[in-house]
Specification:
alpha/beta, 9-stranded mixed sheet, 16 helices, single chain
Length: 588
Amino acid sequence: MRTVEEITTTIRTGLGEIPCDLKLKNVRLVNVFSREIYPTDIYVKGKRIVSIEPGIELQAEETIDCHGQFACPGLIDAHMHFETTMLSPEALSNIIVPNGTLTICADLMEIANVAGEAGLKAMVGNMENLPMRLLLEVPSRVPTAPGLETTGAILGPKEVREIMGWPEAISLGELDPSKILFVKSEYIQKIAETLAKRKIVNGHAIGRMGQELNVYASSGIFDDHETVRVEEMIARLRVGMKVFIREGSTERNLDALVKGALRNHCNLDNICFCTDDKHPNEIAEEGHINYNVRRSQELGMEAVDALRIATVNAAKHFRLEDEFGSVTPGRLADILIVPSLEEMKPSKVFFEGRLVAEEGKMVKKTEVPSYPEWIKDTVHLKNPITAASFRVASRKKSGETTVRVIDMIDRQIINKLLIHTLPVKDGFIERDVENDVLKLAVVERYGKTGGVGVGFVRGFRLASGALAFSTSHDHHNIVSIGVDDTSMAAAVNELARIHGGCSVAKDGKVIASMPLVLGGLMSDKDADVVMKEIEEMNRKAASLGCPMQAPFMALSFISLPTVPELGLTDMGLIDVLNHKLIPVEIED
């Protein structure tokens, strides 16, 4: 918030009574309010922009000649979970800030499900030292599927109310439709208290249309980042919801939705960009929100409109456009100097008036601090895991039986229900490796119940071995997929040994593992180290036959109990739309 002193200083600087700290000379300003691009100079005092008026001369302590390059606002990720980057916020800043992202709106439901309010405090404790802005979408559903999963912590209305009072809290995090359509009073209370504070409620309306969508929107839900089809986007805009076009590692929605928005002449003021979940390797290779801006132009969108979606639209949505989202007087000086709008690779990045990145590199690398030891010890198996832990009993002794299978959809997190016939041997249901129907398991990792939920999945195309990951949305128990039970057991036990992470096993032996000690979700290492480790894990997964670009990201989502049609938790197979446990085997 602006103080009297800061406002007074800004005014006096603009009047010429006090020298500016910085002059960005000879820029072509991309004005996202007026939709213009024009030559001018930009003057900055402290953290704030003083003037963008062409032709005026104010005294400045430092002048940087930008030689006609474009000046754009810092980019905003309207919804993301930094835990799924496998990086701490400090390490993440080192790869997204050079790409121009200076504000992330983060729903920290992942660490909250593992470690509750204490986990949130550990993650935001160093934010004042970050070269970017971390804003909190307060986790609304911890657990996500009450009664259907085991989590490490619970955030009830009392805890959410307290966290919503934190200065970095800007919204109530994503609420899935089951919380509204089943009229669950705990969540209705959270919505009412958030709206009373004039803050936003984020949505998660995947698959909902028609009257269900109208009921969902009527509760006070303001946006949705789960839009996959153009018809869904238009339906959400019609009921007054903002659409966050998502482009993550496994959720590639940008091409279809941008094309649809342009083809249907949608009002772009009601669209924002987000990544939701994007691995650092993809960020390093193609960019972050700047990729969305660049790709949207390639699809036919005007540069100014793509930048508005990436900046001021999100700021307005969260009712923070008075602070950032544009290069205009009084706003915080989040400024990108960009040689080409089409390429959208900043040559200089200023955060609150400070030069923080230049030519794709940080001016000063953000160091990962020492996190508390307790957050590095969150993976505890109550019972020993063996090959027998993954047996799926059948009513039959032998022959064949019909089962429900989670059928993956390429490059999406949604899935379909597949009815498939599998062999039965000695009273247990077997895989069908030839047709890519493999076992999927979720192992409770908080030392509470020892539960193991086992089902079947199609889409990973493993030919041998097993994968395991301690990031399994949103409960974050250990999820494993495998061609044989012995390898699955080895992969899961390895994660208990290293306090969380991802592992690959073959012929019952671990061939690679990667520790993620912060809550079993994130590494405490630098981004460069983590990216190399991820590349090696992906190579090992590929050696088992998996062709996916981001196999562990796909593994983390495939069991999600709030994304249609099926999910899997430590308690068993979930019918997502009806929010209930269902048997794997179908009765004759």
